[in-house]
Amino acid sequence: MNALRTPLDILRQTYGYDAFRGQQGAVIDAAMAGRDALVLMPTGAGKSVCYQIPMIARPGVGIVISPLIALMQDQVDALREQGVAADFLNSSLPPEHQRAVLERLREQRTQLLYIAPERLLQPRTLEELSTCRIALIAIDEAHCVSQWGHDFRQDYLGLGILAEHFPGVPRMALTATADERTREEIVERLHLDDPARFVASFDRPNIRYRVTPKLDPRRQIEHFLLSHDGEAGIIYCMSRKKVEATAEWLTTTGRTALPYHAGLPAEMRSAHQKRFLRDEGVIMVATIAFGMGIDKPDVRFVVHLDLPKSIESYYQETGRAGRDGLPAETLLLFGLQDVVRLRQMVDESESDETRKQEERRKLDALLGWCEITRCRRRALLSYFGEQPDADCGNCDICLEPPETFDATVAAQKLLSCVFRTGQRFGAAHVIDVLRGSDTDKISQHGHNQLSTFGIGGELDVKGWRSVLRQLLVQGYVEADASRFGALVLTPRARPLLRGDEKLVLRRDAFAPKGTKSARSRAGGIDRNIPEEDRSLWDALRECRRQLASAAGVPPYVIFHDSTLLEMLRQRPGSRTELLGLTGVGQAKLERFGDAFLEVILTGQAPVPDGDEDPGDP
Ligand code: ADP
Ligand code: ZN
Predict the structure, then answer these.
(1) Residue 497 pLDDT > 90, yes or no?
(2) 209 alpha carbon, closest ligand
(3) Where does CATH 1.10.10.10 sit in the chain?
(4) From the CB of 323, is ligand 1 less than 6 Å away?
(5) Are 15 and 56 within 8 A, CB to CB?
(6) Residue nearest to atom 18 of ligand 1 (CA)
(7) What DSSP character marks residue 607?
(8) Which whole-number Å values give the CA distances from 341 to 164, 267, 428, in the listed order?
(9) What pLDDT score was predicted for residue 3?
(10) CA-to-CA distance for 486 and 423, rounded, in angstroms?
(11) Which tens digit of pLDDT belongs to each residue from 155-167?
(12) Considering the domain 404-507 in this protein, what is its CATH number?
């Protein structure tokens, strides 16, 4: 490798990509010119290339600061497969390995060094690095400096000193989550010097958004998973207990599902994470403790079994799907219970009043988004300050427009029933009264004597819960946490009760819409392989699996699904043709090219040696 390659040469030869994507070229130009930069790009946009290429192109070693030490090994492995001299330093590395890393650094044999912030800030590391020529310092997950954000790391605050320690070395801060305020915080706390700013569109067009009322979660999940057979995905749950129960249940349905939450022993967590990355088709069932920085490109779906905290968290969590740009699908289930419980959690949290208000505002924005009846992507993007000018065609609302109905009378009935029962009861009882049920509680309180008893025959229980949920979200009624979720009218209810206001609500679809046409277009790369290509597809995947297991890396480090798909479609017959595919660079061509060419030629996967990855029992 000579030092005179241009960034575009490197992109083509080392990464096997034809052209820069979006603002990558501009970001790289700024770094090449020695300028500080702030880079905001959604997950999957290709941030790594933005700092890796200038690090390879500029003289000296590139320093990548990342809080995610569990992932450094994989990142370094992937770079090495591409022929880049990469290393990492963190506390997980045995001392003799650390010495070897430093040795290579001194001998100027390292192109890229990943390092954990706490390790970097140790005086001896700083001293060591001050004798090196440094090409660029990249600060990944830069939003971790923000004390407002949910990923705050104390160590990140110390990174401001890099400005004085390494004068003249350009620094690049990168993140996938940062609102206006966080952006300014990053610039200020990291002491970036008049940085070039790059803010990419946050749209992830390959991700399909689906939001559905939670009715029978397990049946809904099963239905959803029908179109994601054998694919990797994440299912988020709110509690540890639910994580475990859900993983267990999925296992009994014959799937590979692993639990992940902060209460599990560290070794188990890291073993599960490793299997998720290395094996194909693993479902991770997790609390939000899982996922930051996971850059597995082929996560095909993300399900939320419970509501996330805010639109920001939702966007970040779903953003883990489809980083490779191939179709991915998300599903969020939400119900009356979630609305009540999350509001309660905010009310009872330890936060001070200002913070609580902020949390309430964010939760309400999320709830409102769940209930909307227009294109979800447009609404999401406009929440982040973008104004797309067309509906997306790739969300549940665009694909299966919901029905709405005039709910004025139903809402009046429900609200007056809340009022007549004394604003002391929760959803279940109020609905029982409306429907004229015969329960002990009703006779005990004499509620069968009320004028609202039995006036709600037009809807079933699900129907009433749906109306109530929407009334809660829109603020006509509140659930009082201090009185076990007793429903209480708000001032907004008055004009509606008086008949001065009309109310249109969405009619929830209670049976999953299983229409074949809608489902078959969804996700399911594997299912969309034409029948005549199936055996070659399987052979290509098997070849990749064997190479990955021999090299001890995840399959996607060998080639992404998108590259295998190109092989399938274009059937390259020579090394030159193979090099023309996206994701095939010089180093990978040398190492793996012939194996894949042979598979394409013969249509057969290589015969396994039998010496498979001994790690997993
Ligand atoms: P981020 O860190 O922004 O989430 P990554 O750096 O992991 O994203 O890149 C996402 C995916 O896009 C990776 O699989 C990467 O190899 C691929 N990629 C990046 N840049 C390009 C490009 N110019 N052309 C094609 N694929 C690219
Ligand atoms: Zn849409």
Answers:
(1) yes
(2) 2
(3) 404-507
(4) yes
(5) no
(6) 46
(7) P
(8) 48, 32, 15
(9) 53
(10) 6
(11) 999 999 999 999 9
(12) 1.10.10.10
Q: How far is the C-alpha of 137 from the C-alpha of 399, rounded, in Å?
A: 44
Report residue 168 as tokens.
């003249």
**Mean predicted confidence (pLDDT) in 106-115:** 96
The helix/strand/coil state of 208 is strand
Q: Which of 10, 14, 17 to mutate to test the pocket of ligand 1 (most atoms within 8 A of CB)?
A: 17
476 lines ligand 1 (CB under 6 A): no
Average the pLDDT over 105-133 and give the result.
95
**Rounded Cα–Cα distance for residues 190 and 160 (Å):** 4
Distance (angstroms) between ligand 2 centre and the Cα of 326 equals 18
pLDDT of residue 482: 80
Whole-angstrom distance, CA of residue 224 vs CA of residue 433: 35
Mean pLDDT score, 314-319: 92
What is the C-alpha to C-alpha distance for residues 63 and 57, in angstroms, rounded to an integer? 13
- 559-575 average pLDDT score: 94
Q: Ligand nearest 321 Cα, by number?
A: 1
Residue 441 has pLDDT above 90, yes or no: yes
pTM beyond 0.90, yes or no:
no
CATH class name, domain 7-199? alpha beta
Dihedral sign, Cα of residue 549, residue 555, residue 558, residue 561: positive
Q: Which CATH class is domain 207-401?
A: alpha beta
CA distance to 84, 363, 417, 431, per residue, from 343 (Å): 49, 8, 22, 21
* Nearest partner of 63 among 113, 119, 129, judged by Cα: 113
Positions of CATH 3.40.50.300 in the chain:
7-199, 207-401
Residue showing tokens 């996967």:
605
* Span from the CA of 28 to the centroid of ligand 1 (angstroms): 14
Q: What number is the average pLDDT over the span 488-517? A: 81
Pairing of strands 486-489, 477-480: antiparallel
498: how many CB neighbours lie within 10 A of its CB? Answer: 9
Q: Which amino acid is at 492?
A: R
Q: Is the pLDDT of residue 172 over 90?
A: yes
Task: Look at ligand 1, atom 15, and give the residue with the nearest C-alpha.
Answer: 46
Angle at the Cα of 59 from the Cα atoms of 143 and 21, rounded to 5 degrees:
50
Cβ-proximal residues to 97 (8 Å cutoff; 6+ apart), any chain: none
Q: What kind and span of H or E run contains 597?
A: helix 586-602
The residue type of 381 is: L
Q: DSSP code of 11?
A: I
How far is CA 106 from each of CA 61, 95, 100, rounded to the nearest angstrom? 10, 17, 10
Q: Which fold has domain 529-602?
A: DNA polymerase; domain 1 (1.10.150)
What confidence score (pLDDT) does residue 512 get? 54
Q: Where in the chain is the domain with CATH 1.10.150.80?
A: 529-602
Whether 176 and 42 have beta carbons less than 8 Å apart is answered as yes
* Sign of CA pseudo-dihedral 315, 318, 323, 325: negative
Q: Which residue has the tokens 């001998």?
A: 107
Q: How many angstroms does the Cα of residue 326 sit away from the middle of ligand 1?
A: 12
